[in-house]
What we know:
With about 240 residues, the protein is an alpha/beta fold. It has a single domain, classed as 3-Layer(aba) Sandwich (Carbamate kinase). It is built from eight helices and eleven strands. The protein has helices at about 30-45, 65-70, 75-95, 120-125, 145-155, 190-195, 200-210, 225-230; strands at about 10-15, 50-55, 100-105, 115, 130-135, 160-165, 170, 185, 185-190, 215-220, 235-240. α1 links the parallel β1 and β2 (about 50-55). α1 crosses α3 and α5 (about 145-155) runs parallel beside α7. The protein starts with 10 loop residues before the first strand and ends with a strand.
Amino acid sequence: xxxxxxxxxxxxxxxxxxxxxxxxxxxxVDPDQAELIAExxxxxxxxxxxxxxxxxxxxLWRGRTGIExxxxxxxxxxxxxxxTVMNALALMDAIERGGVETRVQTAIEMRAVAEPxxxxxxxxxxxxxxxxxxxxxxxxxxxxxxxxxALRAMEIDADVVIKATKVDGIYDSDPHKNPNAKRFTHLSxxxxxxxxxxxxxxxxxxxxxxxxxxxxxxxxxxxxxxKSALLGKAVGTLINEVS
Length: 243
């Protein structure tokens, strides 16, 4: 009988982009994509790992587009926050249909559809084996969902932030444009900041650095990538204190 592998992490924060829910068209919510994400999430739950999720809204609204047309930045950001709640509800529905109890908490109160964010209540849900999805970012404009993910991860005392992308880590240039791009298996926080990465904003990385919270950037769509990373195997790019 094969020996059961023990997860390296007890509690994680998974950061998903809004585009993860979009299908081939690149926008909206694709039920097939939601179900695929739910399968990955269910696999993590079956490993006994406590899982919280922050999801973006790029599939529904890009604040940058509005700002470029003269929209007020705060208004554009609030619209994005509402978009994340829509994505959180869609993801909750898919995960629960997969048999895993899930709760959505929002930084902007909308009690008819979700719980208000309360840290102690969120950790209680996690202790009970429920997946918790945090919507509406930090509740404040001028902060990205990457920063919201770092903040919530520290508030719930997560062991690691998993940044889910479509590439298998961080490269020194765009691997889709440069076939000779070099992939980093490990970076210090300072190195990641100096590289001015587009994969995660500097505020989020700085917040993790100040609180010694590791970040793993991986390809969420590779079937075994997330599970392997949670078992402590070398997957994607690890960002932490020691280089």
